[in-house]
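From the pipeline queue, job 12 of 40. The input is one protein chain; the requested action is below.

Action: predict structure.
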Amino acid sequence: MSGSGTTAGDDPLQTAVWRLRSRGCWTDAAALLEPHAPDPAAALERAGLLVERCLFTGEGWAEAEDALRTAEAVARDDDERGGAACERGRLAYAATRLGVRDRADEASAALGRAAALLAPTSPGRPLLDFRRGLVAEHIADSPQAALAAYRRAHEGATAQGDALLLSFTWHHQAGLALREGELAEARHGFSESLRIREELGYLIGTAPALAALADCEPEPEASRLRAEAGRLFRLLGGVPVWLGAQLAPTVPVQTSSAQPEPAA
């Protein structure tokens, strides 16, 4: 649930799913996968799309739960069960970060279960490391543990050639650097994240990357980046909803100030 789906040789279904996902059309993308739901990989991907919709829109929790239960039910081996547990952890993290309901304990438990199920060499391990970093940073308030997890995820994504996950690991390592006042390091990380997302055509993630980079730049560049982020934000119908507060007063605030840069 982190690959771009745009490389030559990808099957038409995955290409169509990616194009819809990258533009914030998660429901349509999930509908394409629904006929394939008995297949564990398709069920997990569909659940991941609907969980991502929750993170970006703050809506669709019941549909995501239903899709996740389906993925858990059809999983056949430890790798598939570990992938489903990883998605459950992300859904619980999203609910906690967006203030829907405190599910912090569930998030930690689900990601811990995923860690026990996924082998160290599993393709899903870098994504799990990244999500454990999110919990460490934003729920446990442990930036050192978060940085270690992001670095493991970054190394794994690099080894697997997972460009989209790399855009997230760059972004979050840069966020920790900014938190420590390391402007040059933060600027580099946010720039790399933005570059990758633009190259992949990951439109839904471009506005957050622009807004983050603006926090590292002097004027007038900072205002230009925020204005571009605001343009994309409006173009996509005010999604991600949590970005509105960061862009205010350029863009009207539409939700709380929580800004949980979504997991890939």
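Job complete. The chain has a mean pLDDT of 92.
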